[in-house]
Design a protein that fits this description.
Layout (H helix, E strand, L loop, with lengths): L3 E5 L3 H13 L3 E5 L2 H11 L3 E5 L7 H11 L5 E5 L4 H9 L4 E4 L4 H32 L6 H13 L6 E4 L6 H10 L8 E5 L5 H9 E2 L11 E2 L1 H4 L4 E5 L6 H13 L1 E2 L8 E2 L3 E6 L3 H6 L5 H7 L2 E4 L10 H16 L5 E2 L1 H9 L5 H15 L4 E2 L29 H19 L4 H8 L3 H8 L1
Parallel strand pairs: 1-2, 1-3, 3-4, 4-5, 6-13, 6-14, 7-10, 10-13, 15-16
Antiparallel strand pairs: 8-9, 11-12
Helix pairs in contact: 2-3, 5-7, 13-15, 16-17
């Protein structure tokens, strides 16, 4: 389909001239002689771009522009301006116009401006689509009352720039909530920067956060931007902030209060423009009582508190989560999606899930790999999720029961040994691979 251009001008000669030029280049041309007619054409014809004359009788052109942006926010509007109305065109650009063309119109300028505007719209639509997919990917799956309440809190908190403190047990999806808030915020196309406060050594944390200048310390062989600087304009997510040392907490607090910071070894003051989201699996109020967390920082972060419910408080969501995970796993492996029996699902509903959604996801990844058939039954569910099933035991001395061939026996023993380690790690393939000193790829190859 060729792009459709709506020309809004009260001069028939301008419309005819532009229509001739654009039609020759394959554009579909629609025209209107005033603002009221233009709004009707936009609703009925859905053009891809509007050329709007800035000087027309009847409805005020700036009001027309504002109405267009209300009914079609992503529709690019290019203003056509005559001599002496450049100032008005600039005002129109501030009100949402993409660009302006000055009379007498240049054919080359018209074509370049229209193509640029259409490319801009295409990029905008792609960004909206990718943002939507990102929100879907990172959204909390579920219809339970607990999740609906969480959705409501996210939707209310996202558009503001207030600091947010996300609390919840390990594996509940705190990072997912933070990503969703970022995507629904007023800065979704800006950076989303994560720093895991529990994973970075204390001596490196200041540098990671604020950056450093070359020569600031022995290993500083070059200038390094910190997370505060990298997150400028976007969101900085401080994951597991309860594990941050007291000294760094004080520096974070100063940066939040002054909205400024300095790189280590630097004298230049940098402005902080990042929305701050923090998370913790600890009870920070108890940490304050124990002297491990600053009360003033807690109040600074806890402007909007969000608590992510554990899986045991939203068991109604388990069937939907199971279906979603099995669907995603089938796409990743390009294999047919596995189904799960009611009895097997019943076992998952009865379990208490101390590891929350992460533990459920790990178990389903394990089952999708290790169950050779298309249907997962109760007998396929291992302990501790299946209290009826006998725990997996490896043979002690009688290795000859595997095969009468040494090579085959070795392979079978390796397979059983790996399965046992996966059992011990609650289905977490990465953890099992780490314990065994191998890779997840190798494990999958052996147990298939």
């Amino acid at each position: 389909m060729y792009p459709a251009v709506l020309i809004v001008d009260d001069e028939a000669t301008i419309i005819e001239s532009l229509e001739g030029i654009l039609s020759d280049d394959g554009f579909e041309v629609i025209h209107a002689f005033n603002g009221y007619e233009a709004l009707k054409k936009i609703e009925s014809e859905s053009p891809d771009i509007v050329l709007l004359d800035i000087w027309m009788p009847g409805m005020d052109v700036i009001e027309t522009l504002k109405e267009i942006k209300k009914i079609a926010p992503n529709l690019p509007v290019v203003m056509i301006t005559g001599h002496g109305t450049i100032e008005s065109a600039v005002d129109a650009t501030k009100s949402g116009a993409y660009d302006f063309l000055e009379k007498p119109l240049s054919i080359d300028k018209v074509m370049v401006t229209i193509n640029n505007a259409l490319n801009f719209r295409k990029r905008e639509e792609e960004n909206i689509y990718l943002r939507k997919k990102s929100i879907e990917k990172n959204s909390i799956t579920g219809t339970s009352h607990a999740v609906q309440k969480l959705y409501e809190e996210i939707m209310n908190a996202a558009p503001s720039d207030a600091s947010i403190l996300i609390s919840g047990e390990n594996g509940t999806g705190k990072e997912m909530v933070a990503r969703t808030i970022h995507q629904l915020s007023l800065r979704p196309e800006q950076p989303f920067i994560i720093i895991n406060c529990a994973a970075i050594p204390e001596e490196n944390l200041d540098s990671e956060l604020f950056g450093h200048e070359k020569g600031a310390f022995k290993k500083a062989t070059s200038k390094n931007k910190g997370k505060f600087e990298l997150a400028s304009g976007g969101t900085l997510f401080l994951d597991e902030i309860g594990d941050m040392n007291i000294n760094t907490q004080a520096k974070i607090l100063r940066a939040l209060e002054s909205k400024t910071f300095q790189r280590i070894g630097g004298g230049r003051t940098l402005h902080m423009d990042a929305r701050l989201i923090a998370s913790s699996n600890k009870d920070l109020e108890k940490e304050i009582e124990a002297g491990n967390f600053r009360k003033d920082l807690f109040f600074r972060l806890n402007v909007i508190p969000i608590i992510v419910p554990p899986l045991r408080d939203r068991k109604k969501d388990i069937p939907l989560l199971v279906d979603t995970f099995l669907e995603n796993l089938s796409k990743q492996s390009s294999e047919k999606k596995k189904n799960i029996s009611e009895n097997a699902l019943g076992l998952l509903l009865d379990y208490e899930w101390q590891g929350n959604v992460r533990e459920l996801k790990n178990l389903l990844e394990r089952l999708s790999i290790m169950v050779g058939k298309d249907h997962i039954n109760a007998a396929d569910i291992p302990q501790p999720y299946n209290p009826i099933r006998e725990p997996v035991k490896l043979p002690d001395k009688e290795l000859f029961i595997y095969e009468d061939d040494l090579s085959k026996a070795k392979k079978q023993f390796e397979k059983d040994f790996i399965k046992k380690m996966i059992d011990l790690e609650s289905g977490d393939l990465k953890s099992a691979a780490k314990k065994l000193g191998t890779s997840v790829k190798y494990i999958k190859k052996i147990i298939h």
